[in-house]
Amino acid sequence: MAANWTDFVSGAVLTASQLNGVLDDFSDVAIFTEEQASGTNAGTFTSGSYAKRTLNTTVVNNIASCTLTSSVISLPAGTYQVRANSQGLLCGLHKARLQNTTAATTLAIGTTVFASNTSDGWAVSDIYTVFTLSVTSDIELQSRCATTQATNGLGSAANFGDVEVYRQIMIRRIA
Q: By C-alpha distance, which of 129, 101, 126 is closest to 111?
């Protein structure tokens, strides 16, 4: 059964076909995360160049021919909308990027953020982008920082008894 949406201005009920494909019941969505056991820090954030971030959990993957292997996302040709984030703790300036390692090109740069390295500072670099791939490509979520922070620079465990989530990426195929 197709979903309907209400236009909150006019009150009219709209179907997906009336929305020109803007909404499609989220059938072409993939969400990948880095998850660790409760009490497990995400690891050392080493300053220098961009480095691949861990993605080890598939929350949902409804994109045909999309896979996650060793923290690398393989995406088929198409146009995608992506939201991603990567956190840093006590590492000074840091930012994330989305890298097409097949073409050796940067698809998007995340927000530049500052995680104080003299107090309990942490910050999250966000990426919001749309891009088109002409061929199947390997994509990595990467980040870099200004100051190395051992053990928990990539995320500090809350130790609340449930899973620790340190990075997330949501990919939606839009064409």
A: 126
Question: Of 158, 123, 173, 142, whose CA–CA distance to 46 is shortest?
Answer: 142
pTM over cut 0.90? no
Residues 6+ apart with CB under 8 A from 95: 109, 110, 111, 112, 113, 125, 143, 144
Domains of the chain, first to last:
29-173 (2.60.120.40)
pLDDT value at residue 36: 97
Q: How far apart are CA 53 and CA 6, in angstroms?
A: 39
C-alpha 153/C-alpha 149 separation (Å) is 5
The pLDDT of residue 25: 55
